[in-house]
Write a structure and sequence with these properties.
The longest helix has 13 residues. With 366 residues, the protein is of the alpha/beta class. It contains 12 helices and 19 strands. Strands 4, 6, 7, 10, 11, 18 and 19 form a 7-stranded mixed beta sheet that branches. It has a 6-stranded mixed beta sheet with strand order 2-1-5-9-8-3, with no helix packed on it.
């Protein structure tokens, strides 16, 4: 089968024939139908998230169950599934306190690029090929743990269903689960990308009265209005802090979301939040980077500064709910897909991502 393989950091992915083992006990083989091209994959390519190579990237994907290993009960051959890149163990401390997004076991194995038993199912010429993170969606087929394959309704196009696996649950969940945005509140979103658009429509779903989209690309800022933005700020033309204060009567917003992954915009999100407000960091920066905020403001302004991973969600519950919202016309997925690519065009898709051209580029396998 064909897969896109990263052999060395900062190089293009190579389309190669890769061997794939049969699913073992508790594992599922999925015939991939669609996979989103996400900044998190780009972070691995750029060595911001160093993982072992060679590796098959891709974590936002949907497909059809093709085979199941011994003991699998939650899915069967023919089921439509969205892949879960944080397949929580259900047993660790964080799973037990209701935070499966923080699962210790899933985090550890994801950093290894292997399955839960420490081995890989992909290989080239007998040499192990790793997968990111327990999914490896940039391949025609993949083998994943059973709890990484979430069954979904079968009436949603795969290229749309794939999006709930990362960008939708991350963006909407940051609003509904992490910040718990209240009706009538004011919201600012720094970064109009795949996740940022979903933060915006999550805020609209919650009934925010003012949603301020902040970016540097006029065409993306204009499109944020489709998802519910009431105001836009072009950060290349205006001072963001001054502009936000002008729009909020000098107070700042109740909730600010940073969805880029840069220390300076993370600090900016904190600074545009009003006293006692909440700033949520969704974007992923390199592990060696730090954010600087005014120390005196921490107690004196009593703001909440927090992060959100996977939208603080629970995929087995949230993926189906999000797709139900789409089916009911309450969640917009079609406008998120900017361009469809073949697997052979994947590097073109990453170039468009780096240039900020797409909201979401999607690989379609059929």
């Amino acid at each position: 089968m064909k897969a896109a393989v990263l052999h060395n950091y900062c190089e293009e992915l190579q389309i190669e024939n890769v061997d794939l083992e049969e699913p073992r006990k508790g594992e599922v083989r999925v015939k991939m139908k669609a996979a989103g091209i996400c900044h998190s994959d780009l972070h691995v390519i750029n060595a911001h998230l160093p993982l072992p190579v060679p590796i098959i990237l891709g974590h936002e994907g949907a497909g059809v169950v093709d085979a199941v290993g011994e003991g699998v009960t939650s899915v069967k051959v023919g089921d439509h599934v969205v892949l879960n890149w944080v397949p929580s163990c259900g047993k660790c401390y964080y799973c037990q306190i209701g935070r499966p997004d923080m699962c210790d076991e899933a985090a550890k194995i994801s950093a290894m690029g292997t399955m839960f038993d420490g081995t890989t199912r992909f290989s080239i010429g007998g040499k192990a090929v790793y997968q990111f993170p327990l999914t490896g969606t940039f391949s025609e087929y993949t083998v994943v743990p059973e709890r990484a394959a979430i069954p979904i309704r079968n009436d949603v196009p795969f290229e749309l269903a794939a999006l709930v696996g990362c960008s939708v649950i991350t963006g909407v969940g940051a609003v509904t689960n992490t910040a718990k945005v209240e009706p009538g509140s004011t919201v600012a979103v720094i970064g109009a990308g795949g996740v940022g658009f979903n933060v915006i429509q999550g805020a609209a779903l919650c009934g925010a009265k003012q949603i301020i989209a902040i970016d540097v690309l006029p065409e993306k800022l204009e499109m944020t209005k489709t998802f519910g933005a009431t105001h836009t700020i072009n950060a290349s033309e205006e001072d963001v802090i001054s502009a936000v204060l002008d729009l909020t009567g000098g107070h700042g917003v109740d909730y600010a979301f940073e969805v880029i992954g840069r220390p300076e915009t993370m600090a900016e999100a904190y600074n545009i939040t009003r006293k006692t407000g909440t700033a949520v960091i969704v974007g992923i920066a390199a592990p060696n980077e730090s954010v600087t905020v005014n120390a005196f403001s921490l107690p004196s302004q009593s703001k909440t500064l927090t992060g959100s991973w996977l939208g603080q969600g629970n995929p087995p519950v949230d993926y189906p709910k999000l797709l139900d919202l789409y089916a009911e016309g309450k969640l917009k997925l079609e406008p998120l897909v900017s361009k469809i690519y073949t697997l052979d065009q994947i590097n073109e898709g990453f170039e468009a991502l780096k240039a900020g051209k797409n909201i979401r580029g999607v690989i379609r396998f059929d």
